[in-house]
Amino acid sequence: MKVLIVGVNSAIARLIVERLRADGDEVAGIDRRGWNKAPIEVHALDIRKRAAEDVFRKLRPDAVVHMGTVTSLVMPGEERYRINLGGTRAVFEHCRTYGVRQCIFVGRHTFYGAASDSPLFHTEDEPPMALASFPELADLVAADLYAGSALWRFPELHTTVLRLCYSLGPSGHGTLGTFLRGARIPTLLGFDPLFQFMHEADAAAAIVLALRKRPRGVFNVVGDEPIPLSVIIRETGRVTLPLPEFVYGLALGRFGLPKLPEGALQHIKYPVVADGSAFVRETAWKPRFDDAITMREYRAAFPPPKSRGRGDG
Amino acid sequence: MATGLGDNIEERISKLEIPWNRYGVDPYGASKANLRWMFGLFGLLYRHYFSVKVFGIERVPARGRAMLVGNHSGGIAIDAAMVLSACFFEMNPPRLGQSMIEKFINKIPFASLWAGRTGQFTGLPEHAVRLLEDDRLILVFPEGARGTAKLFTERHTLVDFGTGFVRLALKTRSPIIPFGFLGGGEAMPTVANAYTLGKMLGVPYLPITPYGLPLPLPASMQIRFGEPLHFTGDGTEEDEVILGYVEEVKRSIARLIQEGRTPAFSLPAGARATTNGGPSQ
Predict the structure, then answer these.
(1) What is the DSSP string of chain B?
(2) B115: nearest CA in chain A?
(3) What is the C-alpha separation between B183 and A305, in angstroms, rounded?
(4) Of A118, A120, A133, nearest to A273 (Cα)?
(5) Cα separation, A307 vs B260, whole angstroms
(6) Does B280 reside within a domain?
(7) What pTM was estimated for this model as a whole?
(8) Which residue of A6, A207, A238, B230 has the fewest CB atoms within a 10 Å radius of its CB?
(9) Domain encompassing residue B65
(10) In a domain, B87, yes or no
(11) Domain architecture of chain A: domains with CATH
(12) Cross-chain residue pair B29–A120, CB shorter than 8 Å
């Protein structure tokens, strides 16, 4: 099978490339960032540009995996809207024009949003309810829904929308891996939401499984059971730094804390937990790594930085 | 005491039929460590501070899905705490009751954390259905916040019931176990509710007692469980049918409250009584 991966230079996409090549599939990629010494043909292109269409025309892939969306944590502002919405539109239009048989859109479980009155265990039929508190999610939510609309707009294209929970692993990439990098992890005093994550190798395995089993529709993909954020911080060798919400808001962007949109605080205040049973039913998916191994591997790759004053010097 | 397990909280938690993971957390986020603390505190209130009599605890199913439905009694959630305590301390094996709590609780720091870690979730239909389909025991007060706002003089009355709980019971084929709670009004003799002050503090209201503070007195209480009610249907019935079932539940609860107020009915036929110590005994 010929597979084209859009947004191929990410930790999970690289693992997908490894797996597909091991299975004997032909793989190519597109990524604005390029990929130095890539083991496959990678086109350093913006998916929205004319040259990207040429890749579809020449390669004629059987399947496309679209992982080229970005979060507000990586790219603030208007450009993110253009990448997420314009990019997703381009992927599906090229798929239709060049006879691609299958397209997998890789989305995120944060689609559902975090709010005080959100239910635990979101199912795929739930609308995204928390956009009011975190408007920076709107473009990703819109991209997800746009991808889902291909199910009826392009019935000849086998479309799968996957909403993956956070991934964690030795690459340290991703929202959760980045959040846990420091020695002290700031949390909101009086809140300890459940977090759902899976090993990055399992995230890649789930996407490959979707390529093989071709489930049609929208599916949450999750790993082990959710656990409290405080447990994740403890098990990855970090220390919780609980801050009152108003202090946290003021401290964002200062004292080494990232500058996050205010809505992002909702995600360390309330849980976003997805029900992954539909994907399991459809594909017999079973994660290989449990949460303990996943956290241990992250911790081994990223030991907690030593606190100031107790350092080597 | 009615059970052989005694009040050893650790042992009782270990007997709960809940699938704990390696961190002592269940799939919904309830944690053994937090339950230990909660039942430590509730145990003191249940066994020593209040004087609680429990009738008919054997009517609560030992396992499997069920919905405990009762009246609110008292300006704060002492009623829920004592019903959870009765299910935990009097049943053998013990059961964890999981209340469907008011939405505002999840907005309050620490209250949100403790509610989630002790298995008490916002009263959303999604939560009720999921817990019941997972064969849990849920606790519902269909009077809602209007029920806790009852004044001392209204303590034995029932305000309007919501109807959603009956549809959920039908949809999930769960029995409803009605209970009447008495004594919460005496523990928290509310003479007025401060709604504006409450809203400023992020709660619906603050109960005002003759002694000012919204703190409970060491009163005598009764929890009277009735016979399980099984209704037929799938939850899609017309409002008239559902309202009929709601009225039946309401009548059962009113009867249980009335029995509690009438000495001749202090021990209903067939019901087992459990009496706890307290300052009045």
Answers:
(1) ---SSTT-HHHHHHHS-----TTSB-TTS-BHHHHHHHHHHHHHIIIIISEEEEE-GGGS-SSS-EEEEE---SSSTHHHHHHHHHHHHTSSS---EEEEE-GGGGGSTTHHHHHHHTT-EE--HHHHHHHHHTT-EEEE-TTTHHHHT--GGGTT---PPPSHHHHHHHHTT--EEEEEEESHHHHS--SEEEHHHHHHTTSS-EEEBTTBS------EEEEEE---B---S-S---HHHHHHHHHHHHHHHHHHHHHHH-GGGSS-TT--EEE---TT-
(2) A191
(3) 56
(4) A120
(5) 62
(6) no
(7) 0.91
(8) B230
(9) 29-275
(10) yes
(11) 2-167+199-222+275-287 (3.40.50.720)
(12) yes
Quote the CA–CA distance of A267 and A264 in Å, as a whole number: 5
The mean pLDDT value of chain A amounts to 92
- pLDDT tens digits for range B231-276: 999 999 999 999 999 999 999 999 999 999 886 555 555 566 776 6
Whether B56 is in a domain gets the answer yes
Residue A130 distance to chain B (closest CA, Å): 14
The C-alpha atoms of residue B88 and residue B54 are separated, in whole angstroms, by 12
Q: CA of A310, closest CA in chain B: separation in Å?
A: 30
Set of chain A residues whose Cβ sits within 8 Å of the Cβ of B109: 188-191, 244-245
Whether B1 is covered by a domain: the verdict is no
Sheet-wide strand order for B176-182 = B121-122, B97-101, B137-140, B66-70, B176-182, B220-225, B51-55, B273-275
* Tokens found for residue B266: 């202090």
pLDDT at A307: 56
- Least reliable range by pLDDT among A53-62, B6-15, B30-39: B6-15
Q: For position B111, which CATH number holds?
A: 3.40.1130
Candidate from A189, A194, A292 with C-beta closest to B29? A194
- Find the angle CA(B146)-CA(B186)-CA(B247) to the nearest 5 degrees: 40
Nearest to B110 among A121, A190, A292 (CB): A190
Contacts for B41-45: CB closer than 8 Å, 24+ residues apart: B42/B81, B42/B82, B42/B84, B42/B85, B42/B88, B43/B7, B43/B9, B43/B85, B43/B89, B45/B78, B45/B81, B45/B82, B45/B85
